Amino acid sequence: MHYKSTRGQVAGIGFIDAILMGLADDGGLLVPEYIPQVSAETLKSWQSLSYVELATEIFSLFVNDEIPRSDLEKLVQDSYGTFRHPEVTPVRKLRDNRYVMELFHGPTFAFKDVALQFLGNLYAYVSRKTGSVIHILGATSGDTGASAIEGVRGKEGIRICILHPHQKVSKVQELQMTTVDDANVLNLAVEGTFDDCQRIIKELFADVDFKHRYHLRAINSINIARILAQTVYYFYAYLQLAKQGLADKLNFSVPTGNFGDIFAGYLAQRMGLPIHKLILATNENNILERFVNEGVYQPGEFRGTYSPSMDIQVASNFERYLFYLYGENTEDAAALMSLVKTEGKLVIPDDKKATVAADFAAHAVENDECLAVISQYYDDYSYLLDPHTACGVAAADQLTGTDEVTVTLSTAHPAKFNEAIALCEIKQSYPEQIEALFSKPQHLKIVKGTNEAVQDELVRFF
Predict the structure, then answer these.
(1) What pTM did the predictor assign?
(2) Where is the Tryptophan synthase beta chain-like PALP domain (predicted)?
(3) Which domains does the chain have, with CATH numbers?
(4) 267: how many CB neighbours lie within 10 A of its CB?
(5) How large a percentage of the chain has pLDDT more than 90?
(6) Catalytic machinery residues
(7) Residue 212 phi, psi dihedral angles, 5° rounding
(8) Which of 72, 280, 338, 431 is most buried when burial is the number of CB atoms within 10 A of its CB?
């Protein structure tokens, strides 16, 4: 398997080089040269596999011979052996035809652990095998940072710097990042929004000389390994429900801000997973919902919400979907992304709008609706949703029929967002790992939201 850029100037690179490159050197995003196909017979044969075994099979379709099978199996086992649940991502029933897939059983209680435990171990593997210097640079709206840090803290040959928007993540999210005192970890609190953090990251990676001089590697979902790891749990959920005869009209409702998690579902569907409907759930930062429903992609004014990890106006994975929407035409993809940069928006024609409408349904959840859903499911079904998952459940309730089965991706443990839970007058207990954070000292540096300010810190750190 080789990888190519959505903008056409990078192609024919192997899996390991694709992981190390992160953002393509032409400014585009890397995608597989072709999408492997999984037959109905193969799906049936996978029904008896554990999560670790399934992940190994799916990764092997994208890795080929670059990583020996025995090494790949160990990477996967090491990555998911850290999870608190034996199924890694268990599927739980909420009520008739409504399920959640709990993706928060990893070390930092967030779905990002599923991809970042694997990517952290993969980076460590590559560093050991090749003697490569790994300097990871990432931005977080809350969960990526803690998961990425947990994946590589203390590992030889790796240093990591994470940017987060100062005072715009939950307290638990902040503590999970900033109470880490390992010498190879740097936390920068950026004066601005997550979109500012993400812009700085992409522009620094686009400076190819700087990127190569300081051996920068990507941990955000611009890195194709993140997407590949997230496709696995779509297959796993389908296989668990198929064994119960519940997969004929199976939907997934996905809380998303950066388009990465739902793009993984789109990729799984393109691989042959029979998904009936992909439901895109956003909050009041509804750029993606507007695109699906109106065909307009236009970043707007940032709005702080009770689901801060989705408070995003510029979706970094959107370019990958545009690439496929336009028939893998790299010139079209590059031109459309240039249009967003120069004119602040893009509008797709009616034929493309019809394709988007066939690929996705979408619903934007306002703050009051989010809290109402948390309260309703706690009162009626004794299940406590975090505010991001509540957005996904709200979208599922709005957009699916009674004859359809819908799995909402439950993206975080509610203890990470007690600010929202408390507004519902619900008292929860913290897991002991989270409770312990409140007594630890924090380690971070506040910086201005400019490329220069961040660059200066990186030069000192790396």
Answers:
(1) 0.94
(2) 99-341
(3) 91-109+226-423 (3.40.50.1100)
(4) 23
(5) 92
(6) 112
(7) -75, -35
(8) 280
